[in-house]
Design brief:
rod-shaped; seven-stranded antiparallel beta sheet; 12 strands; alpha+beta; single chain
């Protein structure tokens, strides 16, 4: 069939060429191409129109691609600016935080610096004091261990103090009756201790005495133990011990020496005890 235009002979719909045939876009009818000079011209026109449409489509796609690229570049530029602003804001915030912290530290330093210096000085002074006290205590201990004369005088002073206390007689209830006992001889020295305080700059001499009693009726004996203290003693410029030998009563009336040692010597938890040798007569 010879087609003189692009309309379907059956429904007057638009014909679309596909290779050597025409297809109606409305009713779907198919027609062979009967080429003549007019058809050749028509085909050329159709082909040119297709090429033009394809070029326009490519141009449109190119334009869309370029537009999308420009939009992407614009978005990336906006993102870079936003990230730069955020980075600058973080740097400023960090700088401000640093300045704030520095200001706080300076304020704390100005407020507590003098106190810390005082504490440091006090700490050093305390350490120095403790060291000097320890050295003084060690010197006293070493000196006492060699000074038999002081130990002998201290023992004699303590014995006299015990006698003057008036403990030559005691009374004890035995089998329902009170029985009297009299001291036999003089109080006897048992031990001598140097007591040195762990907290204070204080030293004492502890003299342990034994008193022996004998009951009138039974003739049985009984022992009692006391501690006498001497606090007034020091080292003079010649390296010898000087003291007034003033005594006072410590713990007393123990019936067992071990009990006295546990309570009166070891019981002084804030003191360290160093046993001193009793000079031989």
């Amino acid at each position: 069939m010879k087609l003189t235009n692009l309309n379907c002979p059956q429904c007057n719909g638009f014909l679309q060429q596909e290779r050597d045939i025409f297809c109606c876009t409305s009713c779907g009818a198919v027609f062979n191409v009967d080429y003549d000079d007019d058809d050749v011209k028509y085909t050329e026109l159709v082909t040119e129109a297709d090429r033009t449409r394809m070029m326009l489509q490519k141009d449109l796609e190119l334009i869309q691609t370029q537009y999308q690229l420009r939009e992407d570049m614009k978005n990336r530029e906006v993102q870079r600016k936003r990230e730069k602003q955020i980075s600058e804001m973080k740097k400023k915030a960090a700088k401000m935080s640093g300045l704030t912290i520095l200001g706080i530290l300076l304020s704390i330093g100005m407020t507590f610096g003098p106190l810390l210096y005082i504490f440091w000085k006090v700490g050093n002074s305390t350490d120095s004091y403790d060291q000097k006290k320890a050295e003084a205590f060690q010197t006293m201990s070493d000196t006492l261990k060699k000074d038999d004369i002081f130990i002998e005088n201290a023992i004699a002073a303590g014995r006299m103090f015990e006698i003057r206390r008036g403990v030559d007689t005691i009374s004890e209830k035995i089998d329902g009756d009170y029985c009297s006992a009299h001291m036999v001889g003089e109080p006897q020295i048992e031990d001598v201790y140097l007591m040195q305080s762990t907290k204070l700059n204080q030293q004492m001499i502890y003299l342990v005495y034994k008193r022996t009693y004998e009951f009138e009726d039974s003739g049985e004996s009984k022992e009692m133990f006391d501690t006498i203290r001497i606090k007034d003693f020091s080292i003079d410029k010649y390296g010898a011990i000087k003291s007034s030998y003033a005594c006072d009563l410590g713990r007393y009336d123990f019936e067992e020496k071990d009990q006295l040692y546990r309570e009166a010597i070891l019981g002084e938890s804030s003191y360290t005890a160093t046993e001193l040798k009793i000079p031989e007569n």
